Amino acid sequence: RPRVLSGIQPTADSFHLGNYLGALRQWVTLQDTHDAFYCVVDMHAITVEHDPKALRRRTRVSAAQLLALGIDPERSTLFVQSHVPEHAQLSWVMECLTGFGEASRMTQFKDKSVRQGADRVTVGLFTYPVLQAADILLYRPRAVPVGEDQRQHLELTRDLAQRFNSRFGRTFVVPEAHIVKDTAKVYDLQDPTSKMSKSASSPAGLIDLLDDPKVSAKKIRSAVTDTGREIVYDPENKAGISNLLVIYSALSGRSVAELEREYEGRGYGDLKKDLAEVLVGFVTPVQARVREYLDDPAELDKLLARGAERAREVASRTLRAVYDRVGFLSPA
Ligand code: AQP
């Protein structure tokens, strides 16, 4: 079975609909055909100021959400990044292969550092994509399921893998980004030209999976749309409606064309009301399962420890090969 790997940050008390449709939904389906490794990347979460207690809580909530969304810990290796020290160890080697200028061109760092102000930005945020490259390369995956916003980081990962291979001998698999076109970028409900994101300016544009379903339904009903009347997919002229159609299609399993036909001649209000119902139907059982997992944190921790053990078997083998190739003496 070809391997896949991906990670998600425990930086909020809930994943949002962009995380789910852009990435996590693919994580779940890829389990059927791939040897999957999925991790909660807590080391990435400390690249910005954080509260230790919140991080601990959010790491468990993240794992619980992944399980509730359908990640099967028997078929997939589900683990927490900091439980596998090889991530930090490989990251150092990768940092020494990364050009300073190359890292400076990462747009996510540029955007985030503008938002935070130069004095508060950490070196960890700067080297974030290099740690991400290490996260991936350790497991030699063929593909990495992510949203569109991660494309540039994936390119860096590929460049670093190729560079290492050509300098020190073939060690890494050069991974492909697995980006599903339709849902590669889910947009903010209030500003449908910007990506839905936890750091969005208004919470009204963001659907959190664990939010009160009534609140989420209301956000859908208040989503910004244009002044026209037609329900058609036209991202350039009708960004709001197109975003709602994409979300509706992904959550219902019906094609956008089918939805366009169904809503022909009907109003935006009808579409929003129905989508709100579909959303509530989706999140309600997910929330119940999350609660079950969180009710037994000892069991959850045990499951994550088992995942880390499996991940380490693979990661330590890769790291050993890397250390050997770069010329580190193995301990006698
Ligand atoms: N709006 C989105 N559409 C599609 N995919 C998205 N992803 C995030 N937002 C969207 C994908 O979710 C996965 C996990 O991303 P992450 O761990 O980087 O999560 P995040 O960065 O905390 O999420 P945000 O909201 O995007 O954070 P900020 O506001 O900090 O930038 C990734 O595969 C990502 O592509």
From TrEMBL:
ATP binds at Q9, P10, T11, G18, N19, G147, E148, D149, V186, K195, M196, S197, K198, S199. It is found in: Cytoplasm. It comes from the Bacteria. It catalyses: tRNA(Trp) + L-tryptophan + ATP = L-tryptophyl-tRNA(Trp) + AMP + diphosphate + H(+). Gene3D superfamilies: HUPs, Tyrosyl-Transfer RNA Synthetase. InterPro entries: aa-tRNA-synth_I_CS (IPR001412), aa-tRNA-synth_Ic (IPR002305), Rossmann-like_a/b/a_fold (IPR014729), Trp-tRNA-ligase (IPR002306), Trp-tRNA-ligase_bac-type (IPR024109), Trp-tRNA_synthetase (IPR050203). It holds the Pfam family tRNA-synt_1b. Transmembrane segments: none annotated. A motif ('KMSKS' region) lies at residues 195-199. L-tryptophan binds at D135. It is an enzyme of class 6 (ligase). Keywords: Aminoacyl-tRNA synthetase, ATP-binding, Cytoplasm, Ligase, Nucleotide-binding, Protein biosynthesis. Its EC number is 6.1.1.2. Belongs to the class-I aminoacyl-tRNA synthetase family. Catalyzes the attachment of tryptophan to tRNA(Trp). Homodimer. This is Tryptophan--tRNA ligase. It comes from Streptoalloteichus tenebrarius (strain ATCC 17920 / DSM 40477 / JCM 4838 / CBS 697.72 / NBRC 16177 / NCIMB 11028 / NRRL B-12390 / A12253. 1 / ISP 5477) (Streptomyces tenebrarius). The gene is trpS.
